[in-house]
Amino acid sequence: MIQVRARELSALSQEITQCRACPRLVEWREDVAREKRAAFRDETYWARPVPGFGDPRARVLIVGLAPAAHGGNRTGRVFTGDRSGDFLFASLFRCGFANQPTSTALDDGLALHGAYVAAAVRCAPPANKPTTGERDECAPYLRREIELLDQVRVVVALGAFGYEAAWSALRASPELGPGLPARRPRFGHLVEVPGHRVTVLGAFHPSQQNTFTGRLTPDMLDAVFERARALT
After folding, report:
1. How far is CA 63 from the centre of its chain?
2. Closest to 156 (Cα-Cα) out of 46, 89, 61, 43
3. Residue 188's domain spans which residues?
4. pLDDT for position 3
């Protein structure tokens, strides 16, 4: 069963990487790949939609905002090669969900244990701000990942945008939606919303504007993943 699930997730990932549904995002991700950042001028950017990745037996699903222009849009893996990912994967490592605290490239050896990471929007957006329409265009991918990741018991939503996307995807699920409250509770760090099978946990997004200012500390993010582990 696990092998079948892994194949289905792999097929979905391939489908995601071929998407060109949002003209603004397609233009932006490809412009960034041509112009590049000076530090990466010798690298070939991924410049395609970035699928989720992780353990097909995951009991924790992590939903972020979107790939970073010079992070996932460059490396081809969400949260890989940027400061937000440095902060996130260090926490996942400390809490036992990752085999190493860093993620720099697709072939860096990172493996997730009991966790899967996805994003509300799969292409890097200008100014890190996708539109709600772009989020809605990507929504079926997240819904299908949730269907395939049938061992998930906790969804960790990074930031309000990820929280709204995760909530919509769960509410659309015939199995999971009826178990959640009819109205979405307000987002907050460590907000906890129990359902019949899945609990939603909120966490401030590990963006530099949160981590550099101290709004989100390592201990605060660890508390979210420690709670996620306790719930599974």
Report:
1. 4
2. 61
3. 2-231
4. 85
